[in-house]
């Protein structure tokens, strides 16, 4: 059989004083605890009738119930406020995410637009450089052709003069020179 102190809510075991513990055996401790509580109530409530005692207990329980209900209501209000703040924060988050997406899309489209502008600019510059190159080549070709013409003409004139000098006598030479001077004079008058 168990010792009576083992069944009671003990404030420590007898042999090792100074420790504190609870007996978790509910079946053994509840009847003892209830008898102690009733004994304390009867002792302190001498002269108080049982109905008054129960009325007082009922009032205490009602007060406790009201405090619990107030705490629950306050908790509900706090919960509703927290839910409202959460909804506001989620709405702000959605708005910021939408704005961030808009900036991201605008940024990508701006980058794409700049890329195409750069490509078009490079293409235009490339075409201009090709045109300049072709013009330079054409100009250089014309210059070389003119130089070749001048050399050929010069050589032909020297060859013709050489031939004329060897074939012509002085009189024929003077007639040819006079005829050429006349031809140049007529051309000059025609141009003026």
UniProtKB/TrEMBL annotation:
Localization terms from the record: Membrane; Plastid, Chloroplast thylakoid membrane
Coiled-coil ranges (or none): 72-106
Keywords attached to this entry: ATP synthesis, CF(0), Chloroplast, Coiled coil, Hydrogen ion transport, Ion transport, Membrane, Plastid, Thylakoid, Transmembrane, Transmembrane helix, Transport
Membrane topology: Single-pass membrane protein
InterPro entries, sorted: ATP_synth_b/b'su_bac/chlpt (IPR002146)
Source species, domain of life: Eukaryota
Membrane-spanning ranges: 32-54
Chief location: membrane
Signal peptide: none
Record-level Gene Ontology MF annotations: proton-transporting ATP synthase activity, rotational mechanism
Family affiliation: Belongs to the ATPase B chain family.
Function: F(1)F(0) ATP synthase produces ATP from ADP in the presence of a proton or sodium gradient. F-type ATPases consist of two structural domains, F(1) containing the extramembraneous catalytic core and F(0) containing the membrane proton channel, linked together by a central stalk and a peripheral stalk. During catalysis, ATP synthesis in the catalytic domain of F(1) is coupled via a rotary mechanism of the central stalk subunits to proton translocation. Component of the F(0) channel, it forms part of the peripheral stalk, linking F(1) to F(0).
General remark: In plastids the F-type ATPase is also known as CF(1)CF(0).
Subunit structure: F-type ATPases have 2 components, F(1) - the catalytic core - and F(0) - the membrane proton channel. F(1) has five subunits: alpha(3), beta(3), gamma(1), delta(1), epsilon(1). F(0) has four main subunits: a(1), b(1), b'(1) and c(10-14). The alpha and beta chains form an alternating ring which encloses part of the gamma chain. F(1) is attached to F(0) by a central stalk formed by the gamma and epsilon chains, while a peripheral stalk is formed by the delta, b and b' chains.
Family annotation (PANTHER family): ATP SYNTHASE SUBUNIT B, CHLOROPLASTIC
Record's protein name: ATP synthase subunit b, chloroplastic
Organism: Apios americana
